[in-house]
Fold:
Amino acid sequence: MSRINNDEVLLKVENLCQYFGPTKAVDNVSFDIKKGEVFGLVGESGCGKTTTGRSIIRLYNITSGNIYFKGERICAGTFSYKTAIKEAKSNTKKDIKALKEESKNNPSKKKENNAVIEKKKRDLDAFITEQKNKIKSAIFDHKYSDSRYSQKCVAKVAGEYNKEFTDAKTEAERKALSLKYAKKFKIAKNTRLITKIQMIFQDPIASLNPRMTVREIISEGLVINGIKDREYIDEKVYEILELVGLVREHAGRYPHEFSGGQRQRIGIARSVIMRPEMIIADEPISALDVSIQAQVINLLNELRDQLGLTILFIAHDLSVVKYFSDRIGVMYFGKMVELASSEELFLHPIHPYTRSLLSAIPLPDPHSEKTRERIIYEPLISHDYSVNKPTMREICPEHFIYCNDEEEARYKEEFGL
Structure:
């Protein structure tokens, strides 16, 4: 039975760009993740997978594009709007210069051209105003999306307790309710929308503070959220430790006292104690032994069922991604080049890079390994984008490819679509 709620898109990434100077780490990437889904993001090292995950969770301020979570814009970049203004100014300047030159050579057209020039100036002013309003809106949403969410949480808590206060018959009941309300109000006030997305990092030892105990590491999010009740915090930590396959006695130890697999379980416990709706798992098994990898994947599967998690699973091990993911996006050189369901992608890989990746999967069979054909991807040979530029296109239902008109026609003919 599918665990995906097809009616609800939990995360939407729209034209995401993340530039570091001249380096385009992520360039115009778009996808969405449905509630309850595991979305796999694959590609070779350096293709922009981890940068995409870090941009979503706001470890980076994105260059341009929009990221929506639960319908709220949590990240917004302004570079595209500023670039559009510069291009509009440059194009208008060229057009006006050409019109003035024409008027100079043909005085009879001067009046007509002057009217066109004035209209172009008005259109430019209107366009600049529109783009500046978009920049203001992007900055506002990026800065205040968390505070807007906390206000909603506060209003929800107030609405719940107003009825209870009205129904309370004695002073003792009202006093007890006041104490409960104060605690809930503080938690709601400190709640941030971005905390509903948590991240599991690739290197478990590098992501854990060596000077903090496991109890302090796991409970840090609760403390930041305004919870001070020591007994409550300890109980939550013990509960989460047991949930991820550790024991209560581990709470007083330090990260260096654990194996790699146990450290990754601590990292998972830290991410799920806040009861997030979405987890970004950034190559969570790449630093682990093969036998431990299977245990961590099975743990994530169990947590997905028990807690109703949605997962963005970043990896380069395609066999693991096939087993664990519902849909897969393939990235190359900062671009999303193919996106389809896990089954569809492995049965009918269309983009040359995807075919190259799949041909590199080793099989535990010496006979098939001898005959396995390795496909080498050469982008300069495979594509000619000098005239017709590529875009993301739906070649068949729910199967998207980064290609131009000529390639789209060729792919459809080749696969009988």
Notes: The two ends are 29 Å apart (CA to CA). The longest helix spans residues 110-167.
